[in-house]
Amino acid sequence: MDYQRILTIQDISCVGQCSLTVALPILSACGIETAILPSAVLSTHTAGFKGYTFRDLSEDMPKINQHWKSENITFSAIYTGYLGSAKQIDYVLDIVKSTLKEGGKFIVDPAMADNGKLYPGFDDEYVNAMKKLCVNADYILPNITEACFLAGLEYKEVYDGEYINSILKALTEMGCKNVILTGVSYTEGRTGIVVYENGKYEYYEHEKLANSCHGTGDIYASSFVGAFVNGKSAYESAKIAGDYTVECIKETAKCGSHWYGAIFETSLAKLIEKIK
Predict the structure, then answer these.
(1) Beta bridge partners of 5
(2) Is the pTM of this model over 0.90?
(3) CA–CA distance from 159 to each of 162, 187, 205 (Å)?
(4) Dihedral angle, C-alpha 80, 216, 184, 207, nearest 10 °
(5) Which residues contact 131 (CB under 8 A, 6 or more apart)?
(6) 28-49: per-residue pLDDT in tens?
(7) Looking at the DSSP assignment, which residues form a beta bridge with residue 55?
(8) What burial class does residue 136 get, using C-beta atoms within 10 Å of its C-beta: 0-12 exposed, 13-18 middle, 19+ buried?
């Protein structure tokens, strides 16, 4: 496969192992030139830290895009994560339109909600803007909460296959092309990923660990993109990313004081081995 250059757009939390501080090292380790566009800079992420700093970089985004256009800079894939506002989503759509190569893939992690609730600072306006982003994507990577907000369906903690199918149906009717739905659990002690691609349903199941970590969604999405851009199928990429994320959670559990993120660095060699 030809050498790839991709762009990832999300925030920088300087400390906390999430967003760009996860995406950049994982994608680079996968052998992909990774350009970045920070949507904001925070001293730490917002979960558990107090008094963190925040600088919104929204107004820089169109200026950066204009410079890239003047230099004819393009990307073979674009992957978005946490975005801070509806305005940024409009800027991202402009960037995709002007810099994504013909035939390139646009992958969206609609990072905005979990456990039945939107993240602080997000509202219906943001959800509606995210819908617009998702219908323009080749693949979206929501968890069940995010999928329900996008589809306008009630979030349920207890569900069956019919419920998951109703979510997939609503998303595709909305215009989403392919859905990688994470955190789908049909059996106690097990969880997994639904890959709904071109109308075909596949499911990969793996163990469900008792402990959870901040930033695992970013680890999952970044490793999925790394595998996918390297030529793996969507299902293979979902499997590789799921196994790697589980490995990272296990590594984190060994260090009881590591509460603010997931330790992904020590398992990167295993990810690279599976991809290569």
Answers:
(1) 33
(2) yes
(3) 8, 10, 16
(4) 150
(5) 150, 174
(6) 999 999 999 999 999 999 888 9
(7) 41
(8) middle
